[in-house]
Specification:
Blueprint: H1 3-26, H2 33-45, H3 50-78, H4 83-100, H5 107-121, H6 128-157, H7 166-189, E1 215-216, E2 230-235, E3 248-254, E4 256-257, E5 261-263, H8 275-281, E6 286-293, E7 307-312, E8 317-320, E9 326-329, E10 336-342, H9 348-352, H10 362-365, H11 373-383, H12 389-403, E11 405-406, H13 419-426, E12 428-429, H14 431-444, E13 449-456, E14 459-461, E15 466-470, E16 474-482, E17 486-490, H15 511-526, H16 530-544, H17 559-577, H18 587-601, H19 612-622, H20 627-642, H21 649-666
Parallel strand pairs: 11-12
Antiparallel strand pairs: 1-5, 2-6, 2-15, 3-13, 4-5, 6-10, 7-10, 8-9, 13-16, 14-15, 16-17
Length: 667
């Protein structure tokens, strides 16, 4: 394989790495990015003919003008993300340059276009795939730059195509390691500022399925399908809770029901429990949850009930509304915060004895639409036999969890979607039916209650030590008011219904490992800011001062040693393979270099890099008697090295004898 072919393929691989890196952040457009990828892959194995090149040259100008006009229109009139149309133009130019052929004069343009593609991807929130592509780009690019330089030198001096040996491969690898280490150093020094542009065709996660800003019973004639979109990733600084599947990630509460849909009242009347109640009257336990959330179109702060305080880690401002629900102001490409919640609710005996006289707004939490008489009769039959509020609530809860079945199959017709049909005819449904039925029955019995939605449980990732919560676990449950204690959770959906478990389906090997890596990438790279930078340098300072600054702060104490060792190894590789090691040279080159170093030690020349002409001239003036022997060695070296023939054992034997005689002559 010629040097030109190797260089051409490396440049194409650079372009493909840049394309994958950009797609990891902005997505792949089927009208531009995917065709460009197909073209580059085809060019990797086959060079186009002259006819194809000429046809592409003629077509490029009008298409490039069209794409440039589109980018200008987006930037000045339409508005939006101008990077994507610019990248489409960049992809066209890159493909055209590769089709033309990577002549030495085109090298710089190809490098610049491929690098611009990687640079454009940093305007988004690229994931782990970007990291892999970037590492590949660095290693491939280092080799391409070195080979490109060799090609230009060969063309300039009219030399034959050079041969790539093991020394070149090792040297290129060392240079790549040094380049990558420098990139990491730049990253640590300069915090990331996320532009947070949306990618190609991105939509907020809630527009697909799962969590929504309302609860509706009006859907029919279909099946609720899986949606594995991850919406929450949760760490527990104080340790992993025991019952992960039973954790309810509370989102929003709903107080008004029109018979089909639950909504939030617009009237701003007190409906929240004083936060001090949860701290003073519930058991003393606090659970901290560090949550990284997807950018949903509903700006909700999630957390376990009862949520008392929120500490933001990104550019958001959390607040609590009049109903006790938490939300946030501002925008963030990935809202990150720590929720502090009261861990355990009061027990049954405490709730049975609740006798306070403070109740939330009755017009909101006892509101009911027109209902059939049999719904009210059912509520009375369930609650009348019991004396305490707790036992009445427990009776309704027990009725729904034991007498009804769970299904993800929606009702067949609009008429069958009613709550009345669920209670008395169908007697099976999904979680929204169970939570709606419990709230309606309790309100019909005069007990303040409200519907709540969010997520239930999640999937624990052993590799990343975090809980992954997807849209598959979207769930609805109930909060009931108890005097002196506030809102208490009740979940009437039958146990074992599959709620709270990530959707099934195909799971590829290493899925959890990749998910854990993606999460850490988000935490350590995408969310890297000035505060994180200051923390890193503080720990570095403590480590160098002998204060053990790394221990107990999330970074192992041996990390610094590994970083230093890795850098030293890379520098040693580069040092040994930038021409200072003779072991990888041809035998005749090693012999001549040995003679030059011997002559330098004898004082004949000042440098061990002297050329044969210079060395022979100095020997003639300082050691005339050694000139014939030295000339013989030089001629033998040049014939074996540049004669173009093969070097056999006899040649090597003559070379060793000539070298020994020449060394004795100049000593």
């Amino acid at each position: 394989m010629t040097l030109a072919t190797v260089h051409r393929r490396l440049v194409i691989l650079m372009a493909l790495s840049g394309l994958v890196a950009f797609g990891a952040g902005a997505g792949l457009d089927p009208l531009s990015a995917l065709p460009a990828g197909v073209v580059l892959l085809a060019l990797l194995f086959r060079r186009p003919g002259a006819t194809t090149v000429a046809w592409v040259e003629r077509l490029m100008v009008p298409v490039a003008l069209l794409l440039a006009g589109r980018a200008l229109l987006v930037a000045t009139v339409v508005g939006g993300d101008v990077v994507i149309p610019v990248v489409d133009l960049l992809l066209l130019l890159l493909c055209v340059e590769v089709i033309r052929g990577s002549d030495a004069v085109h090298d710089v343009r190809l490098y610049a276009l491929a690098f611009a593609l990687v640079l454009a991807s940093t305007a988004y929130r690229p994931g782990v795939l970007f990291a892999i592509s970037f590492v590949a780009f660095v290693f491939i690019g280092s080799a391409a730059l070195a080979i490109g330089l060799m090609r230009r030198k060969a063309i300039r001096f009219g030399a034959a195509d050079a041969v790539l040996d093991r020394s070149f491969v090792v040297t290129s690898t060392g240079l790549s390691l040094v380049t990558f280490a420098m990139a990491v150093g730049v990253f640590v020094t300069f915090p990331r500022v996320s532009r947070a542009w949306p990618g190609r065709g991105e939509v907020a996660a809630t527009s697909i399925a799962g969590f929504s800003d309302r609860i509706s019973l009006g859907q029919h004639g279909a099946t609720i399908r899986d949606n594995p979109e991850v919406v929450l990733q949760v760490e527990f600084p104080d340790g992993r809770p025991a019952d992960l599947g039973g954790l309810r990630w509370r989102g929003r509460s709903y107080d008004r029901f029109d018979g089909v849909t639950w909504t939030r009242s617009e009237v701003e009347r007190p409906g929240a429990t004083p936060v001090s109640w949860y701290r003073a009257r519930w058991p003393e336990s606090t659970v901290a949850q560090r949550i990284t959330a997807a950018p949903l179109d509903v700006r909700v702060v999630f957390g376990l009930h009862a949520l008392q305080f929120v500490d933001p880690h990104s550019t958001i401002t959390p607040a609590m509304d009049d109903s006790g629900d938490w939300y946030y102001w501002g925008s963030s490409p990935q809202p990150t915060y720590t929720s502090f919640s009261t861990g355990a609710p009061p027990d049954a005996d405490a709730l049975r004895s609740a006798a306070g006289n403070y109740f939330p707004d009755r017009t909101r939490y006892l509101q009911l639409p027109d209902l059939p008489a049999r719904v009210h009769a059912l509520a009375d039959s369930l609650t009348a036999p019991h004396d305490t509020r707790y036992d009445r609530v427990a009776a309704v809860h027990r009725f729904l969890t034991s007498e009804f079945g769970y299904t993800r199959e929606l009702p067949r017709t609009a008429r069958e979607t009613s709550l009345d049909h669920f209670l008395f005819e169908r007697r099976e449904g999904h979680c929204e039916y169970f939570s709606s039925a419990m709230v309606v029955l309790l309100r019909a019995a005069g007990i303040q209650a409200r519907n709540v939605n969010g997520f239930l449980g999640g999937e624990w990732n052993e590799f990343g030590n975090f809980l992954s919560v997807s849209q598959n676990t979207a769930h609805s449950w109930v909060e009931v008011w108890f005097p002196d204690y506030g809102w208490i959770e009740w979940d009437p959906t039958p146990p074992g219904s599959g709620e709270g478990v990530a959707g099934l389906g195909w799971r590829f090997p290493g899925r959890l490992w990749l998910a854990g890596l993606s999460y850490r990438w988000s935490q350590w790279v995408l969310e890297y800011d000035l505060a994180a930078q200051v923390g890193i340098f503080d720990r570095l300072g403590d480590a160098f001062d002998g204060g053990g600054g790394f221990e107990g702060r999330g970074l192992p104490g041996g990390t610094l040693a590994w970083i230093v060792a890795g850098g030293l190894i890379a520098l040693i590789i580069v040092r040994r393979n930038l021409g200072t090691s003779a072991r990888s040279l041809r035998p005749e080159s090693r012999a001549w270099r040995s003679f030059v170093r011997h002559a330098a030690r004898a004082g004949i020349v000042e440098s061990d890099r002297a050329t044969p002409a210079v060395l022979l001239e100095r020997i003639a003036s300082t050691r005339p008697d050694a000139t014939p022997v030295a000339t013989g060695l030089a001629e033998l070296y040049q014939r074996l090295r540049f004669g173009g023939g093969s070097v056999d054992a006899d040649d090597l034997a003559r070379l060793r004898r000539a070298l020994a005689e020449a060394k004795r002559a100049v000593s």
